[in-house]
Structure prediction request, 195 residues.
Amino acid sequence: MKMLVIFVLSLFVTNLCSVVDSAIWPGLNPGCGALGIFDNGTARAEKIEERETAIVFKLYPIGNVEKRDKQVRLRVFEKYTDAIKGLDEFSHVFVLYWFDRNDTPQNRSILQVRPQGNKKNPLTGVFACRSPVRPNLIALSLCRILSIKDEVIFIDKIDAFDNSPILDLKPYIPLIDSRTKDVRLPNWLRKIQKR
Prediction:
């Protein structure tokens, strides 16, 4: 069964939508409502509906997280196995996945939480923490690659449920991903990191 993940990116400037739509879809009436479709190794965009402040994209998972028998695996769907060639030369991979068990209108409308569900932590905006409830339920984990066999990537751990849909994989590249020297963190997070 194919799984489909849809997310909405809200844009605050309607004029920006008109400019984007006109550039991408000349001849169409300006307004938002772009649909990006990624399927069978091809990408195309379609105008699906007019919305005042939103662009809608469809994303198709490339695989699923598997957590069974004390092993953690990323199973890539067969049609995407060519895309993992060379990943075995890296020690770590960023995994972007979907918080599918939180995908409700109520959870998407929550904008502030107490990080890690700890009442001692201050009320914090979801863009300032790693909360699994947020407008777009995209999750990110950095995982150590243990081995790769065919379409299966064995990793050390991931903060995801079994069968969570994987949206993308990106290798960890220190030159790009670790360039920040002067990192500032809120007090609640510094306390957690000292443990």
Q: What stands out?
A: Residues 120 and 171 are 35 Å apart (CA to CA). The chain is about 15% helix and 40% strand.
